[in-house]
Amino acid sequence: MGLATRADGADRFAAYVEGLTSVIGHADRAVPLRDYCAGLLVTEGRKSVEPMAAATAPSTVSAQHQKLLHFIGEGMWSDERVLAKVREMVMPRLERHGPIEAWIIDDTAFPKQGTHSVGVHHQYCGQLGKQANCQVVVTLSIANHDASLPIAYRLYLPQAWAKDAARRKKAHVPKEIRFKTKPQIALEQIRAACAASVARGVVLMDASYGSNTALRTSVGALALRYVAAIVSTVKVRTAAARDASRLSVKALALGLPQQAWRTITWREGTAASLRSRFARVRVRIAPIRGAAGRAEETLLIEWPQGEAAPTKYWLSNLDKNLSFRRLVDIAKMRWRIERDYQDLKQEIGLGHYEGRGWPGLHHHGTLCIAAYGFLICERQTIPPSGPRPARGLAKPAIPGGHQPRGAADPAPAARPQLDRNPPSPLDRRNRAKAAALSILRPQLPTKSTTQFMTQ
Prior knowledge:
Layout: H1 3-21, H2 30-42, H3 49-56, H4 61-74, H5 79-94, E1 102-111, E2 121-125, E3 130-143, E4 148-155, H6 159-162, H7 165-170, H8 182-195, E5 202-205, H9 207-210, H10 213-221, E6 226-230, E7 235-238, E8 247-248, H11 249-254, E9 262-268, E10 273-285, E11 297-302, E12 312-316, H12 324-331, H13 335-348, H14 358-378
Parallel strand pairs: 1-5, 5-6
Antiparallel strand pairs: 1-3, 2-3, 3-4, 6-12, 7-8, 7-10, 9-10, 10-11, 11-12
């Protein structure tokens, strides 16, 4: 990367951070804000506070460490205002590749050891695929086919934590925070996005959210469209017959005729086109209570070739006349958030925060999203095969004589008081020098000779 390109990248980064500074509050927060965001982008390896302090101020690591710790762990600045500013600055770049098409509800987990970090609980951890000690954060992201950006980020606080006054106080959990389920947190985030007039998209959710009837109903009441993944046990009735039997979506799928299934390609993958078999049926959900008056929805079913049974199910309130391929394409847009979460965790260090308090966890998440927003903007300035955008930010030069904490002294001082004996000779021994011995074996006879012994 040329010097001009580096300079341009540094100038764009400075302008981006200046935009964030306008909502951060006191002017003395501008420098740690810049350094923290820069640290997230240029620090290699784990992006906790100490390595970032060493990367951004190698000559004053200890002082920088304290400044960043105070800024992220105790700073009294608003995560909501910073995230809103990130959205305002990044959305025009997102929309260069098309309008916002989806709002994606999701959560991400951070495995943890111990029980002291805020919100840590033995619960399902998606990263590990099993129950484990972890923190879970609920997010709402806006997306099109090019990229996604989280616009809301909130820790799920389990009941055990919500009711524990001592732990709440120690972790600085705000008094107004009460126990809410993950779907309830997601609905709050959606309502806030509507109130902020965020460009609307189809609400996408996985089965842990989509199977929640109250959430789907509330999203529909906000005049939003959704495509919600559901579990195979959700009960429905086909809309075609008034007296249709109540059955699970899996049973309905297994009873569909062969002509109901179509092979649809929804996206070009890196190696090949992505295609599978799908069917769609107009249904009404059929809960045990309150089934009367339920609106018609489209049940979308995926049954890949070679599988013994259908693998995925969705309910959608999109227009029934929407093309089959478009419906599948929208349902499959959730892959975008999985890809971007991977980047946020691996490239930006979303899960690397080592503090234990509520404010620090959310501040770190907010600035990770801010740094990721900058990378989204930078994608427009480099070719697809170009280097990572963060490379445009040069690390501060390491001053001469700088020694990282814990490193061995490269030039230890002489200690003559410890050198009491002369060095031993290379061939030291307490006996006469032995004669040299050949290391070659005596040659063995090539033919064995038979010998007889007589008595």
